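Q: Convert this sequence to C-alpha cells.
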Amino acid sequence: MTETTSKNILNQWLFNPFRFIAGYKALLLGLAIILISTLVGSRNNVHFDGVLDVHLGLESPMWFYFAEGIINWMALAIPLFFFGLIVSPSSFRLIDVFGTQALARWPSLITALVMLPGANQRFGEYLMHKFTQTTPAVTVNPADAIVFVLAVIVAVVMVIWMVALMYRAYAVSCNIKGAKAVITFIASLIGAEVLSKFAILKILLAKI
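A:
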C-alpha cells in the first residue's frame, strides 16, 4: 500500500467513515459513543445542551445527561430523514440515516474528555462570578486559564468536525449532493438546534 493510498484511507475514516460503517453497526457504535460521552461529561457537569452546544453546568442525574445526547441526535436525524425523502433521487434506509447521524457525533467524546479537568469548572465559575456577581468568588491561577482556553479551542474544532461528519453522513446515507444537500442540511441543522434547546429546557424545567 502506497503512502498516498494510506493517507486517502485515513482521510476517509476521519471525514467520511460512512462509506465503511452504516446501518445497525453505525447505530450501535454511535449510541455507545453518545453514552460514553455523557458518562465522561457527567464527571465534570459537562452538558451537551443542544445539537451543537456544550457547556459546563449544574450537577444533574445521569439520565438527564443521556437524554441530552439522545435529543440532540434525534432532533437532527428526523428532519434529515424527511428531507431525504423529498429530495433524494433514490431510495434509502431509515436505519442508515439514524445510524450514521449517531456515529457522526463521535467528536463529542473528545470534547467531553478535554472538558474533564477541574480547571475548566473552576475557571467557568470564576467567569460566572465576574460577569454576574451573583455566584461565590472562585480563586483561579494562570494554569486554570490556559487549560480552559485550550479546552474551548478543542471544543470549537470538534463542533466543526462534527458538522462536517453530519453533512457527509446525510449526503452518503440519502445519496444527495450539490445545492439540494447543502440547503436541506443547513435548514435541518438550524431547526434541530432550536428544537433541541427547547426540548432540553422543557425537561430541565420539569425536573426542577
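The chain has one domain: 3-207.
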